[in-house]
């Protein structure tokens, strides 16, 4: 009996040790979790702020103006150019540049004026009359046509006063000619030591047609017209004399009857 108990106790103890050993083997050893450290290069990359995209500079989008003009008031004017559409060979005609005050913006040039084409555009004159002498400079060039005066014309501007510049065109041969009229503004400071300024105002291109009559120049056409008029008067002279005698006869009879 004691042997049997001992056997059971041995079997029970062996079974218990076997169960405990299996449980110990099946239990996983816990892994130690290490704290995560960011590499130095990665830390520098994450800490660096994003580079902003380049934006265009403001001064590149705005047209620069001279310092004398910034912040100043402007005088509104209308610049108009008138030129002849046609010229008779040997004759002359005029070209006009006008710069008139147009504060209300209501002045509009006429399309034609006395056989001349007219174009106009608004311009702004810096109101610097107190500190500068302001001049209008203009030049007319026309290859193949005689232009007077030649060179650059210069006229002083006064506040609120219109100015005009005239040229004379003369054509000596029939054909189509192109003319160029350029105008600019010249600012001359009254104070010494300040640079002069010049600003373009207009650059007008136009064509002039020089024509003749049966190959004759304007002089011979006018001379022919005068001779034709004189010939017509001579042909009508006998009739005019007869009419004069008739009127005199009626006047004499009337005087005799009254006597």
What would a concise description of this structure say?
The chain is an alpha+beta fold and 259 residues long. The protein contains 3 helices and 11 strands, in the order ααβββββββββββα.
What does this structure look like?
- The chain has 259 residues and is α+β, with helices and mostly antiparallel strands.
- The protein has a domain at 74-211: Immunoglobulin-like (Sandwich), CATH 2.60.40.
- Helix content is 29%, strand content 37%.
- The protein has 3 helices and 11 strands, in the order ααβββββββββββα.
- It has a 6-stranded antiparallel beta sheet, with no helix packed on it.
- The protein is elongated, with a radius of gyration of 52 Å.
- It starts with a helix and ends with a helix.
- The model is unreliable at 25-47 and 49-71 (pLDDT under 50).
């Amino acid at each position: 009996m004691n042997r049997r108990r001992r056997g059971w106790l041995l079997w029970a103890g062996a079974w218990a040790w076997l169960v405990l050993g299996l449980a110990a083997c099946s239990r996983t050893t816990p892994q130690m979790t290490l704290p995560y450290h960011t590499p130095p290069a990665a830390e520098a990359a994450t800490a660096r702020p994003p580079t902003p995209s380049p934006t265009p500079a403001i001064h590149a989008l705005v047209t620069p103006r001279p310092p004398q003009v910034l912040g100043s008031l402007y005088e509104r004017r209308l610049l108009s150019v008138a030129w002849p559409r046609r010229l008779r060979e040997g004759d002359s005609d005029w070209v006009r540049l006008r710069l008139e005050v147009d504060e209300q913006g209501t002045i509009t040039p006429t399309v034609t004026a006395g056989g001349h084409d007219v174009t106009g555009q608004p311009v702004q004159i810096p109101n610097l009359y107190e500190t500068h002498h302001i001049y209008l400079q203009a030049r007319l060039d026309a290859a193949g046509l005689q232009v007077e005066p030649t060179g650059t014309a210069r006229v002083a501007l006064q506040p609120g006063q219109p100015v005009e510049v005239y040229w004379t065109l003369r054509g000596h041969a029939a054909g189509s000619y192109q003319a160029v009229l350029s105008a600019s503004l010249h600012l001359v400071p009254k104070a010494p030591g300040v640079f002069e300024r010049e600003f373009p105002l207009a650059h007008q291109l136009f064509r002039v047609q020089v024509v003749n009559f049966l190959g004759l120049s304007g002089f011979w056409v006018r001379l022919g017209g005068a001779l034709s008029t004189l010939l017509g008067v001579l042909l009508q002279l006998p009739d005019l004399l007869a009419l004069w005698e008739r009127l005199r006869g009626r006047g004499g009879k009337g005087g005799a009857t009254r006597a």
